[in-house]
Amino acid sequence: MTEEEKSARARRYGSADREVVASEPEGIVLPAMFRELGEKIYQMDLRPDDVWVITYPKVGTTWTQEMVWQVAHGFDPEGGKAKLGQRFPFLVTSR
After folding, report:
1. Which residues pair with 20 in a beta bridge?
2. How far apart are CA 71 and CA 77, in angstroms?
3. 24 & 60 share domain
4. Which residue positions in the chain have pLDDT lower than 50?
5. 24: three-class secondary structure by DSSP
6. In Å, what is the CA distance from 30 to each residue of 21, 24, 55, 84?
7. pLDDT the model gives residue 13
8. pLDDT of residue 41
9. Please, which residues bridge with residue 30 across strands?
């Protein structure tokens, strides 16, 4: 990697040393750990009743997930006490 590439990477990702991978064909940049998770994501079973929450960063994603989960489960305050990450899968990507 050239010094110019390192500098550009550091500006974009906060560090030139942070290992990242780019997906194909879109070139979406993800942390290197997604290399291992990619196959699991591609093999994930999708159901006709799945609900996807797709948002920009910092626009109330967590609040939206909580509201969607509550509506889908008929307002379940007891079930809602479980951590959101256990009730609502969360995939993050950046470009």
Report:
1. 31
2. 11
3. no
4. 95
5. coil
6. 5, 11, 17, 23
7. 64
8. 79
9. 21
